[in-house]
Amino acid sequence: MGSSEVSIIPGLQKEEKVAVERRRLHVLKALKKLHIEADEAPVVAVLGSGGGLRAHIACLGVLSEMKEQGLLDAVTYLAGVSGSTWAISSLYTNDGDMEALEADLRHRFSRQEWDLAKSLQKTIQAARSENYSLTDFWAYMVISKQTRELPESHLSNMKKPVEEGTLPYPIFAAIDNDLQPSWQEAKAQETWFEFTPHHAGFPALGAYVSITHFGSKFKKGRLVRTHPERDLSFLRGLWGSALGNAEVNRNYIFDQLRNLLTLRGDVWRRTVANAKYIGRRIFAPLLRLQQSLQRERPVLEDEGGEPNYNWLTEMLENWTRTSLEKQEQPDEDPESKGSFSDFLDFVRKTGICASKWEWGTTHNFLYKHGGIRDKTMSSRRHLHLVDAGLAINTPFPLVLPPTREVHLILSFDFSAGDPFETIRATTDYCRRHKIPFPHVEEAKLDLWSKAPASCYILKGETGPVVMHFPLFNTDACGDDIEAWSDTYDTFKLADTYTLDVVRPLLALAKMNVRENKKKILREMRNAAMKDHWDKMRLKVTPYSPVAPTLPSTHLTCPPSLSEFLYKFLYMEFLQSPSLPTQL
């Protein structure tokens, strides 16, 4: 979908249909190499949960080992939340080359390197936009430091391998933060938002816009002002904007602002166009601003008990209004003056966004669209998109719609705390919306969570089979699960992630795949045979005493026998956990 209009089409978008169909051919070849015979390729989806840098590294390990074991080539969809989206997007920016991806990971974490000047430059540039929000700051100043990379490519650059079917179709999850009340009350499906190399939009509404026009301004379904496509660095910040709790994030952002106001001169010389006027005329005012920040009264709380940062907004606004007039400025160099002005504007805007706690601001492409009945969706000029982990920390809602026809889901859980919270939340979501999903008794989930194994296979009467893989489990970690969790805390500072810390986590994630390969192959085989027998069932014609002679390709039998054959061949035999690995 490359048009400049909003698309409201139920079901899959045309580009996704074509890409998935081409992927089927590659999946069939991969299954054959795995000694699985199939007439039709079953649709397998791999999901990665959130979990910050822990999820990023562990998801890379999962993808790498799945590639090594020949399993990734049998996957149709890759979907992620938060930290897993960083890993999944890296797979495509490296053209699926896992060796290069691991080498890049080792390089990034073998040194304590972060290009502050470049990150600051990108943030100041973003602050010139009318839709600047904390997501921009988070993306360029926090996530880039966490991952030690600042990708400038775009989601649309992933189209080629996806359209050729050589890599799975990727889906990146977010939620509409303005709809959080609806989510809390009724788990509204409209809350979920997805990104692919072709489109961005609300799958529950079938409402999408071309990914190249995400962020552009629309009215009544028509493009009215084009904005450049947002880069992957920004999108990673949007997808991964829920690291830790809100108060931790808030304090971190203000600490970063204060740190920026004491930048060393050499960083400024790389950041601002002309360095010779930086010293006394620019750096001194910044020090005075930093000192005024330190002297300000402590954080107050508003009537609702939430921290109130209006004082910072007012102070920054007052400083910006007066500083350029009262402070001595290098009149002979307007370029340097402009750079300093941009910096102050960036600080001011970030302070305002922090006081409002404004994230993920982008133009609403459904604004005044006549094809949308829900006025909540069409009356807003802006959307505020945030980390989907604030709803469910794994993207089940994006692969469960029947239009994607997923047969088998491999759910890799890198969450902190209870590794079955995502299963609980998804069960509740599916129950409310009558979506088929395996039901597990709460008592059983509680028991599992106390000493999780490395793999659980969940099956329902209908819907996809779910294989759930907790990252920290007794099979791999023994009695040290808590120690592993503490070592890889979600908000663990990037500076503490040395190569010696990264390697064990990568190895653990790989081992979880390798040790469960036989189970994965068995369920892939079951999915292939289920798809075959489902199609065969459609060819079974119920017995009729007056029916004419039927084509030889059809079976004629009484209805009771038809049902018996189906149940025996599929419901009993194929679903049996004791099915042998090799048939």
Describe this structure in words.
It holds the Pfam family PLA2_B. With 583 residues, this protein is α/β, with parallel strands linked by helices. The protein has two domains: 7-113 and 149-241 and 363-538, Cytosolic phospholipase A2 catalytic domain; 115-147 and 244-269 and 338-358, no CATH class. Helices cover 48% and strands 12% of the residues. Helix 2 packs antiparallel against helix 4 (98-110) and helix 5 packs antiparallel against helix 6 (134-147). The model is unreliable at 268-338 and 536-583 (pLDDT under 50).
The pLDDT mean sits at 81
Strand content: 5-15%
Oligomer: single chain
Could you say how many structural domains there are in total?
Answer: 2
Note the total helix count: 23
Count of beta strands? 18
- Name the CATH superfamily assignment of the largest domain: Cytosolic phospholipase A2 catalytic domain
CATH architecture term of the largest domain = 3-Layer(aba) Sandwich
Radius of gyration based on Cα positions: 26 Å
Structure class: alpha/beta
- In whole angstroms, how far apart are the ends? 43 Å
- Unreliable stretches covering 5 or more consecutive residues: 268-338, 536-583
CATH T-level fold name of the largest domain: Cytosolic phospholipase A2 catalytic domain
CATH top level assignment of the largest domain = Alpha Beta
Sum up the overall morphology in one term. globular
Protein name: Phospholipase A2 group IVC
Organism: Macaca fascicularis (Crab-eating macaque)
GO biological process, one term: lipid droplet formation
Domain PLA2c: 1-571
